[in-house]
């Protein structure tokens, strides 16, 4: 008997419902996963709790399993697609007529993690909002065109990775310049939304429930000068962005001499290392953009854990940071941030 044909759970309080759902999405069993959420709804479960306590919580675990190298990225993507179908099933069973304002929900340009922000959109619908869900990777100009066409009361912008902060900043400024306030969310905006406020967002929320509470309180807020925080980044940030390819390729070329094991890397390992060096530059640039080394040190700590799960020793990352530092000797802010990253590794 397969997992999808066992007795469906009757409540979110069933002790094994989370494990069963995780097993189903991990096995690619779309029908079983949808069966679980529909059975819960049939038995009176709150749709919001199904979305948050089952689908969203499982998605967090999926990310952890990938980071721990227990799941491949292909399995992670397949599980995400199934959770999107399960979320659609919940949405189809819980229509609410709009009674509040209109809100545009989107991921910032370059951000592809759409499931969390889609859950936000469905939660807002349950709360009575008319939601325009634009999905992943929405270019700023297209977002502004949509605002002109629809005139929403708010924009909810999601940013999961701090490397998207410069694009998030451009989107926030553009939205506010046409008179639409912005509520920001997602871990890319930093602890307690510290970088969302620096980029000019009118509000920040840690999760969907927090966003609903914030939108219910004194909204829309008065929009002050949208360009008050419209210009960030400096010469060091500009240099990094203009010379990204050169910095990455030089570090990769020097890595074989500095860390001999790379000489026997397969093509896949070589490409992964090249990608990791690109991430080093991108997170360094983001840290320079918002003038906060924590963007970079958090990335270094997370990357070290991911690499360790793949049996890559921390010294390999430390050497990569040093090779990048050697190319930036004329850029003191960048050097200070890299040094903070190295110190994080040593701790």
Automatic annotation (TrEMBL):
Upper taxonomic lineage: Bacteria, Bacillati, Actinomycetota, Actinomycetes, Micromonosporales
SUPFAM superfamilies, alphabetized: Cobalamin (vitamin B12)-binding domain (SSF52242), Globin-like (SSF46458)
Keyword Metal-binding tagged: yes
Keywords in alphabetical order: Cobalt, Metal-binding
A family per Pfam: B12-binding_2
Superkingdom, natural source: Bacteria
GO biological process: homocysteine metabolic process; tetrahydrofolate metabolic process
One GO cellular component term: cytosol
Protein name in UniProt: Cobalamin-binding protein
Organism name: Actinoplanes auranticolor
InterPro entries noted in UniProt: Cbl-bd_cap (IPR003759), Cobalamin-bd (IPR006158), Cobalamin-bd_sf (IPR036724), Globin-like_sf (IPR009050), Met_Synthase/Corrinoid (IPR050554), Meth_synthase_dom (IPR036594)
Domain B12-binding: 100-226
